[in-house]
Structure formats: C-alpha cells, structure tokens
C-alpha cells in the first residue's frame, strides 16, 4: 500500500491567484512589468509597514546580490555571513568576488551569535579589513537577536542585510522582520511561506534605494531614447504573471502563517512526553516566528540511542519528507577555506536537527500519519 507523499513545505494556493494571472493574459501584460508587479509591491509595502519601499525581483538570491552591490561590496571585500543558512544567502557574496566571513549561531534562536560577530569584526578590522556588510538570517522564520546585532552594526557603521527569505510575517517587538536592516530580503520560492513559483523582493527605506534596485534589475538602462548603459546591470525583475500569483497569495498570508504556527503547536504537544527531543520555539515574548518550518533537536544520549537519522529514515519509509537542518556553509566544500568564528554551535544543530512537515496545507489525516510514524520510532 503506497500512501501519498507528505511534503516538508509545498505550495498552497488560496484561490484568487488564477484571477490575477488571467487578468494579466486578458490585458496582455505578459512581461516583467505591469499592474500585478506594481500591485504586489504595494501589498508588500503595506504588509511590512514602517513606510518601507519594496522592489519585486526574480528571486531572493537576486535581492541579496543587489543589496550587496548597493552596500558597495566588490572584489576582494569581506562580508560577514551567518554560516548556518542556505547557500542562497552566501552565493551572491561570491558572485561579486568578495569573501564571506563565516560566523556561528547562538543556541536560543539558532541565528548569528552576537559574541562571535563581535570577535569576527574586531579580528577582521585588526587585520586591516573592515567588513563591508553583515548578512544575518532569520532561519526557519525565527527572528535573530535584532537588538544586539543591529546595535553592534550601528556602532561600527556597517550596513545589515537582513535575510528574511524564510521570515515573511515573523515579528520582533511587534515589528515585521525584513524592515530592520538597511536592506531586507524576501523570497517567494516554491517552498516558502507564500510562493510566486519563483520570486523575491528587496525591502528598503527610501525611494532612491528602490529606484536604484529596479534600475540594476532592468539592465541598468540610462535615461535616453536609445539603449544607453554606463554600468553593469542584471535581468532580475519579477514577471507580471508571477506577481499575479503573489497578489493572490497575499490575501491568505496571515491565514497560512496561523496554520504553520498550529503545526508547530502540534509538534510541541507530540514531543512533550518524549525524552531527548526538543521542538524549536520562541525563547522570549518579544519574538513571534511564522514557523515556516518546524524543527526538532534529537539528542541520542537521552532518547536511548535514537538519532535524527533514525527518525528521518522511519518517516521516509512511510513516504513522509523530513530534512536535516541546513548544513553550515563553513562546512561546505564551496566555503571551507573561508575564515570562521565561533564555537561550533551550528555544527551541533546540523548533527542533531531535523525539519518536519510544516506546510499550511497539511490535513488531519496527514497529521495522524506523521504522529503514528514518529511514535512507532520512540515506542520501540
Ligand atoms: C530561500 C532562501 C534564499 C534565496 O531565495 P530564492 O528566492 O530561492 O533565491 C536566501 N536565503 C535563505 C535563508 C533562504 O531560505
């Protein structure tokens, strides 16, 4: 008997997306500009609040690339990066011929450790290289230590690029993630909390930065009747078709966040009585995670030897997808030669951590299959 696959996080349409896409066809706006692009940007600006400006782009990775360029990053420069992340965070640093300086996580939010950040920046400065930017990540939707990281960055006058690709809708002291950095990054890839099939956005605090982002994203065309260019540009604008999906998704965003938060509660309850397994959760009342993915830490010394890999394989046998936490970038062959600062907190997280199915479209039947599959492992 083969049961349908339960995915970690799959696209979840609200129903009106198709109307916006149909309208784009009916009005022949099948291009990387048009009413859906502008409308989607407006929706995001009002959702994020804080009078931000938003430029819709073809991906979150593209948004990070354009943020780094505007922070002045070029060949030979150094950029502080949270090591515990997806490669989309750090790849754009390498596109520019700059060096990512890898910084460890802390145990509360699993994100950039303020102490390791301090150590890294002071050491780089002492070597004659002040980092050009700090790339911090709200991993799995959990806000990083915003007060500490931003106060430190401000004291050293280093811009923060806030990778909020996984944290649309998460808040810190009531304010939306993605609005704290000089540049905030969003992603609408297929597995993110909302999707445009593929897409991303730059959140910024002035019309100048938004305009410059759109300029760079549309081949840096100067103002002239012919095509005139005085700097390198990119083809990074979001399609009006994709933006139509985004407009529909915005109508269900908060509902879908609540459903992901319910999935996290489901796992908190499920693992409450299982020794040696902890579910990631907010460690302070100041923070609200969108719980894009629910993640657990499995400590074999307390589970009677059961590891996260035992659990992953048991779920896989029942056609349920789960995935180890992000492998720290400083352990990736691509980045292992770059400097690293910290105490291997993220290495332990990678070794013991597992992401569980977290989609807003999971059913009661899915939840009972997940529960049975997990309990089978721990009740042996
Ligand atoms: C998804 C993701 C990105 C990149 O976004 P894309 O839209 O896939 O290019 C960057 N950083 C993190 C943390 C992500 O999860």
TrEMBL record:
InterPro entries: DegT/StrS_aminotransferase, PyrdxlP-dep_Trfase, PyrdxlP-dep_Trfase_major, PyrdxlP-dep_Trfase_small. The active site is at 192 (proton acceptor). It comes from the Bacteria. Gene3D superfamilies: Aspartate Aminotransferase, domain 1 (3.90.1150.10), Type I PLP-dependent aspartate aminotransferase-like (Major domain) (3.40.640.10). One of its GO terms (molecular function) is transaminase activity. Pfam families: DegT_DnrJ_EryC1. Keywords: Aminotransferase, Pyridoxal phosphate, Transferase. Coiled coil: none annotated. The modification N6-(pyridoxal phosphate)lysine is found at residue 192. CDD domains: AHBA_syn. Belongs to the DegT/DnrJ/EryC1 family. This is Pyridoxal phosphate-dependent aminotransferase.
């Amino acid at each position: 008997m083969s049961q349908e696959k339960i995915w970690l996080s799959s696209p979840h349409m609200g129903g009106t997306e198709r109307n916006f896409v149909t309208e784009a066809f009916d009005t022949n706006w099948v291009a990387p500009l048009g009413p859906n692009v502008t409308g989607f940007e407006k929706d995001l600006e009002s959702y994020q609040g804080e009078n931000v400006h938003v430029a819709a782009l073809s991906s979150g990775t593209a948004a990070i690339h354009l943020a780094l360029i505007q922070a002045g990053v070029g060949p030979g420069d150094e950029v502080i990066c949270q090591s515990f992340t997806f490669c989309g965070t750090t790849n754009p640093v390498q596109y520019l011929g700059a060096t990512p300086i890898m910084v460890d996580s802390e145990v509360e939010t699993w994100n950039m450790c303020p102490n390791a950040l301090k150590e890294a920046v002071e050491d780089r400065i002492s070597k004659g290289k002040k980092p050009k930017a700090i790339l911090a990540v709200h991993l799995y939707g959990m806000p990083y230590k915003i007060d500490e990281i931003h106060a430190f960055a401000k004291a050293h006058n280093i811009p923060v690029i806030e990778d909020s690709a996984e944290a649309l809708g998460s808040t810190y002291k009531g304010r939306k993630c993605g609005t704290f950095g000089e540049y905030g990054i969003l992603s609408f890839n297929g597995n993110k909390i909302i999707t445009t099939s593929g897409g991303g956005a730059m959140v910024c605090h002035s019309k100048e930065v938004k305009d410059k982002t759109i300029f760079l994203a549309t081949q840096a065309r100067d103002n002239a009747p012919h095509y005139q260019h005085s700097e390198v540009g990119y083809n990074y604008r979001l399609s009006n078709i994709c933006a139509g999906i985004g407009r529909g998704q915005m109508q269900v965003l908060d509902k879908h966040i609540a459903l992901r938060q319910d999935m996290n509660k489901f796992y908190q309850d499920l693992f409450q009585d299982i020794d040696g397994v902890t579910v990631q959760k907010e460690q302070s009342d100041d923070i609200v995670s969108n719980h894009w993915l629910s993640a657990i830490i499995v400590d074999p010394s307390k589970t009677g030897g059961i590891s996260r890999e035992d659990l992953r394989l048991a779920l896989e046998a029942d056609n349920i997808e789960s995935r180890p936490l992000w492998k720290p970038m400083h352990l990736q062959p691509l980045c292992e030669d770059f400097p690293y600062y910290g105490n291997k907190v993220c290495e332990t997280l990678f070794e013991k951590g597992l992401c569980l199915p977290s989609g807003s479209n999971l059913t009661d039947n899915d939840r009972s299959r997940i529960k049975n599959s997990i309990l089978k492992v721990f009740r042996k």
